[in-house]
Amino acid sequence: MQQYLEAPMCLSYLIPSNEFVPIAIQIKQLPGPQNPIFFPTDSKYDWLLAKIYVRHADTQVHQLVSHLLNTHLFAEVYCIVTLRKLPSAHPVFKVLSDALPVYCTEQGSLAGVRSIAGSRQSSISSTAAHFHCFRGTIWDLVHRFVANIVDIYYKSNASVQEDEEIHEWAKEIFTEGFLAKQYSGFPTSFSTKDDLIKYLTMVIFSCSAQHSAVNAGQFDWGSWVRNNPSTMQKPAPTEKGKVTEEDILNTLLMKSASVLVLATIHLLSQPSPSKTRLGTYMEQCFIEQRAKECIEKFQEALMKIENEIKKRNEGLDLKYTYLIPRVIENSVAM
To answer: Which of 38, 74, 163, 190 lies 20 to 30 A from 306 at CA?
Structure first.
């Protein structure tokens, strides 16, 4: 069935009551007489459909980039290359051991991708253009933990430079995982301990906290179809004053497809049956006492953050729970 995907431009404004509201929407990129700019003062259904098109575009970016690319596909690259290039006794293998279990591409995610609109080429283009990850308190905590572990096994920058195994590991991630694209920003070797620490932090964070942030709340926010329209089955309006309620219903998913999408995002939002919380190493890879102490301190620091988040959530009607450490899984699973 023919489906439609646009790249809307939305102008929003932060009003004094701290609400972020849209004030103008252009559904297609190129301006022209058949691409009107919609405003809240337009007819009820004109403005509603324009907002739905914005949400539709956001849904594509969310599933293809924020979720699939930045967590699942990244994790798959890290896992395969780690198993191929590093022995299990290597400290980098150990620190990533629970972040990267033997990873199988999650069929639920792929089902979700099959349920969203856009050609294969447009999907590839949108994912290839985005390489980024979040920052924040949990990032800082993971960074500090990784730094403490690296300090145990690498005494100087020279010891990092002399470790050929991690350079081969990084090189294969860059060449095979990111097709040697310089714009990806991925290195092929490490010159300093700081370089290695930042890289390992990025891997662990992408597979844990970042995945939780973009995955755990999918059903909470996307179960209302108009807020998470995965496909649009009618082209965008080319003039104002013509959209009806029936037009909107015909543009959105059919009931059967809506049920499939809802089932998919509900599945994706559930914790894995084999859930392992961030900071937990089930395989007991580390035998050194200093490393075990680092893990204990990491777990204690995570609990402090959890208590801080719970305090901030007290009294709020809409609580943000997706980055509570107890909720964050060690690795990409769903």
So the answer is: 74
Task: Specify the pLDDT at position 191.
Answer: 96
Give the DSSP H/E element, type plus range, for residue 121.
helix 120-128
As for how many domains the chain has, the answer is 1
CB 150 within 8 A of CB 289: no
The torsion angles phi and psi of 4, rounded to 5 degrees, stand at -130, 140
Low-confidence stretches of the chain (pLDDT beneath 50): 102-135
pLDDT score, position 292: 92
Residue 246: count other Cβ atoms within 10 Å of its Cβ.
Answer: 9
Domain that holds residue 270: 9-313
| Domain of residue 187, CATH code | 1.20.245.10
The pTM assigned to this predicted structure is 0.82
DSSP letter for 305, please.
H
Yes or no: say if 35 and 168 are a contact pair by the CB < 8 Å rule.
Answer: no
The label of the residue with tokens 């809240």 reads: 40
Question: Would residue 333 count as lying in a domain?
Answer: no
Return the sign of the alpha-carbon dihedral for residues 290, 293, 298, 304: negative
Spatial contact of 78 and 207, defined as CB atoms under 8 Å apart: yes
> What pLDDT score was predicted for residue 271?
79
- pLDDT for position 330: 87
Sequence-distant (6+) residues with CB within 8 A of 153 are 91
Question: Is 25 contained in some domain?
Answer: yes
